Amino acid sequence: xxxxxxxxxxxxxxxxxxxxxxxxxxxxxxxxxxxxxxxxxxxxxxxxxxxxxxxxxxxxxxxxxxxxxxxxxxxxxxxxxxxxxxxxxxxxxxxxxxxxxxxxxxxxxxxxxxxxxxxxxxxxxxxxxxxxxxxxxxxxxxxxxxxxxxxxxxxxxxxxxxxxxxxxxxxxxxxxxxxxxxxxxxxxxxxxxxxxxxxxxxxxxxxxxxxxxxxxxxxxxxxxxxxxxxxxxxxxxxxxxxxxxxxxxxxxxxxxxxxxxxxxxxxxxxxxxxxxxxxxxxxxxxxxxxxxxxxxxxxxxxxxxxxxxxxxxxxxxxxxxxxxxxxxxxxxxxxxxxxxxxxxxxxxxxxxxxxxxxxxxxxxxxxxxxxxxxxxxxxxxxxxxxxxxxxxxxxxxxxxxxxxxxxxxxxxxxxxxxxxxxxxxxxxxxxxxxxxxxxxxxxxxxxxxx
Amino acid sequence: xxxxxxxxxxxxxxxxxxxxxxxxxxxxxxxxxxxxxxxxxxxxxxxxxxxxxxxxxxxxxxxxxxxxxxxxxxxxxxxxxxxxxxxxxxxxxxxxxxxxxxxxxxxxxxxxxxxxxxxxxxxxxxxxxxxxxxxxxxxxxxxxxxxxxxxxxxxxxxxxxxxxxxxxxxxxxxxxxxxxxxxxxxxxxxxxxxxxxxxxxxxxxxxxxxxxxxxxxxxxxxxxxxxxxx
Lengths: 450, 230
Fold this sequence. Notes:
Strand content of chain B: 15-25%
Distance between the termini of chain B: 43 Å
Order of helices and strands of chain B: EHHEEHEEHEEHHEHEE
Number of domains of chain A: 1
Shape of chain A: globular
Number of domains of chain B: 1
Radius of gyration of chain A: 23 Å
Helix content of chain B: 10-25%
Oligomer: heterodimer
Order of helices and strands of chain A: HHHHHHHHHHHHHHHHHH
CATH topology of chain A: Formate dehydrogenase/DMSO reductase fold
Number of helices of chain B: 7
Largest sheet of chain A: none
CATH architecture of chain B: 2-Layer Sandwich
Helix content of chain A: 55-70%
Strand order of the largest sheet of chain B: 8-1-10-9
Low-confidence stretches of chain A: 432-450
Strand content of chain A: under 5%
CATH architecture of chain A: Up-down Bundle
CATH topology of chain B: Alpha-Beta Plaits
Mean pLDDT of chain B: 94
Number of strands of chain B: 10
Largest interface: A-B, 43 and 46 residues
Number of strands of chain A: 0
Mean pLDDT of chain A: 90
Distance between the termini of chain A: 15 Å
Low-confidence stretches of chain B: none
């Protein structure tokens, strides 16, 4: 197709330009699971919400758990990438795009759940403040409307944040491909030619987005936590929930990023780019977030125990020593003990398998954490007469599994369409001075042929 | 003068017979979900009689408490609804606009009394109950929330009638289905803005208390505590 300009370009374009049968097999299997999830939702729409395990008075359960979980995962990317960009951490370069892609796809999946969980999802657009003949507006006092606005803002912001640094790579692909692919990449490259003024504008736009996206990311998960803390439900109505949820979101997001990077490294043969150093650095961040998360949980639980409010103590007991205790202590093991044991000692932290094992535990633990915030509280509200418990039903389990398949599928397709490691950013990183961006990046150095 | 509908429930009089539950279901077209779904938490009793036991066997004391929507003045269900389906009327009722409800179930979670219900299926009635539906009350489709309305259809009918006569609704002219059917007259319904109404008088009773007053919902149902030791 074209001559070798640079091993980086060749290595990173290989997954895009060459397709193995394994790719099609993966897409087919994941696609089938996603189709099963779509089928499960149609089944739920046809037969009514009663096919789920939701009941009086536990009106939110697995779907809202998934919503909070996936919105949390979405904090992997944009937030981490923006912080690393602003701090100019050099090791970020191969990591940023993997991370930003997680954000966009996790938001798309998480954003579906408020619709899946609606009793009448065909009216979901009533949440949107759109002008209409009857002069009806959504209720701006409702945290669900804040949710809608925050998630939409975050999705648009993170799509821009992902798309901006892809432009030079689209231009590279435009020049490396033929036929319809060339036309598609050409359109996406927005006429990029690699002039100095274009590089300057790109850098400026990315700096602005990195600063803007940080408060948006923090606000999104704070608002998700407000869905709970604004209601007078025992152990929901808490002032700690905003920062606690943001910490948990970053925590699970870093874990998702480590896992995604390990899979990319393995299946796309990117071992030379995603090196143990990256895993170790992210492992340190995961350990830090594990400690922050544990601190929040400890503060929350100890305060409630001392406060000794009867309604809250009912929830406290059922999670600590009652029917939800097995899940609760699994969560503590997964979110605190396993990450601490694996990531505090240098011997295991510096291995990729150590970081991956800790990340898998954290993902399990954080899903359980979301579940344990929602269900035990609703099952133990103020009047003991209403106490109940909940069991997920097949339709909810299938839809939950399908979202994990959908996340993987989106990611596999994305890595097929776009170099999952930003080629130009990696190359800029090899230039000696920060000024390189303005001065020294000639189209030739980019591997872009005129 | 605006009305402020309220209720007083005398726990000393309540025998736990559940006539109110049946009357409410008949008046308000509440679907019967059957024993299986009821066991799975899908029944929708707008009013229920909670049973509690106090003490250790054999010194057990049985207590009943009918619980229905408390029509809070500071209702947690209202601000959380994203579509204003749950909103406050001029009479101080917590109204539910079924047509505007999209089924987030947020109101039902926020309600500390757990008196909001969700239609898990389209409504059905065992024969011949399907022949006795109340034409004044709309049936609710799958996916919407519903709750006690203080029999708002009766309130509106009485208001229309009173306006035609150029008067106000007189105390005792208007009753909810539960109050009407209570054989022990444990439930009294009326206008709290009328200081001479029976419900106002009972609400001022030293025996009176509000359910979960500490949550700060300002409910309009007063419970009169039990005096007898039986």
